[in-house]
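Duplicate of #3305? Posting structure anyway:
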């Protein structure tokens, strides 16, 4: 069973998308309803930054790297992100479809006004790995133990289970964040800083080095991980140059964790002014959708006329229409039962004014900000 909410380094974390409701239609069809994550997906966050001409801040990229390394370590080896060792007989799980479109962002609701420092959770939101539709167990490749169909995965390799699928995807996602160029298109880590906008903080040498670890010879001529090139008379696929997940854990996990902690728990007496506000990425939250029944022709008035009562939907009729979805949700141990409301007056407008923090985004406390162009 995938872990649900865990306490990791003193903070509540959810690593994998949580299934809330499922339906079985009596044949091979099923319908799955997952918990909603209010920050959208990583590719939407990238698109928001690109539309504003902004770079994704470095602290957030380290946060993504740490979350994905810990998540894939659990899938591969059963070691929980909270440090619990794998149960005996653990069978490796291969996600096979890790990408920015399948990683979701969530900002926990706040019960208080925002303090001057800001909210830490808006700088380091929860990151949730979803879409296990192409996942496979290690035993699925064994012709005796598993005969389950193995789908294409993100790298379009049906029937193949390989360590590099998930391992490389972690760093391809990080490079996608830094370069804003999708995996499969030519992107050189050494050129990322050359393409940043005015007053953007350059990415650190260590982040660039890490991204370069997952490039291969002649990448400028063979940019796709599944391309092949001739090396010493043999055709070698580019993924043959990718280190395995155990190497990542042994060589990089501690360093990645250290970088995240340099922002979240810096070795200073007091956090700098407006610290979390300056690192805030919550301005990329998609506009929320409010479920409502809007009736264009009923009443065109800002307020109900005196003596008018809004009609109450017939609960029995509505539940007959929605069927077991509402019943399953109402029986959820952590969620209040649904209440049906009529929204009859004016078109609901649900929006907030969100702006990105001022540039430059800070590095860890103690590092000076780069010069600001006038």
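Output from current build:
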């Amino acid at each position: 069973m995938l872990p649900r909410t865990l306490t990791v380094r003193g903070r509540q974390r959810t690593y994998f998308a949580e299934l809330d409701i499922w339906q079985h239609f009596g044949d091979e069809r099923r319908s799955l309803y997952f918990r909603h994550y209010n920050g959208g997906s990583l590719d939407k966050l990238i698109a928001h930054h690109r539309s504003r001409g902004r770079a994704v801040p470095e602290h957030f990229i380290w946060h993504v790297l740490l979350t994905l390394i810990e998540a894939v370590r659990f899938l591969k080896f059963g070691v929980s992100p909270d440090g619990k060792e794998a149960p005996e007989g653990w069978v490796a799980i291969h996600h096979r479809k890790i990408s920015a479109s399948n990683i979701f962002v969530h900002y926990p609701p706040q019960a208080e006004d925002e303090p001057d420092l800001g909210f830490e959770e808006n700088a380091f939101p929860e990151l949730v790995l979803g879409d296990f539709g192409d996942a496979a167990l290690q035993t699925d490749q064994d012709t005796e133990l598993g005969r389950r169909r193995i789908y294409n995965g993100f790298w379009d390799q049906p029937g193949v289970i390989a360590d590099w699928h998930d391992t490389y995807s972690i760093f391809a996602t990080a490079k996608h964040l830094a370069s804003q160029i999708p995996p499969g298109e030519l992107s050189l880590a050494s050129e990322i800083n050359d393409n940043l906008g005015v007053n953007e903080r350059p990415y650190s040498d260590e982040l660039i080095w890490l991204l370069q670890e997952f490039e291969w010879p002649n990448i400028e001529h063979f940019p796709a991980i599944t391309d092949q090139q001739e090396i010493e008379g043999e055709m070698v696929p580019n993924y043959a140059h990718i280190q395995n997940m155990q190497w990542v854990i042994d060589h990089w996990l501690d360093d990645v964790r250290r970088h995240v902690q340099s922002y979240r728990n810096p070795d200073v007496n007091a956090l700098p002014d407006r610290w979390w506000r300056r690192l805030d990425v919550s301005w990329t939250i998609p506009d929320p959708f409010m479920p409502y029944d809007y009736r264009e022709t009923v009443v065109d008035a800002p307020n109900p006329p005196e003596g008018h009562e809004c009609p109450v939907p017939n609960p029995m009729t509505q539940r007959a229409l929605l069927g077991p979805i509402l019943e399953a949700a109402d029986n959820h141990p952590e969620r209040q039962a649904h209440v049906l409301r009529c929204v009859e007056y004016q078109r609901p407008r649900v929006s907030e004014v969100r702006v990105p923090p001022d540039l430059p985004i800070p590095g860890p406390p103690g590092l000076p900000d780069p010069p600001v162009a006038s």
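Confirmed duplicate; merging threads. Residues 48 and 313 are 39 Å apart (CA to CA). Strands lie at 6-8, 11-13, 19-24, 30-34, 93-94, 103-106, 126-129, 136-137, 228-231, 234-237.
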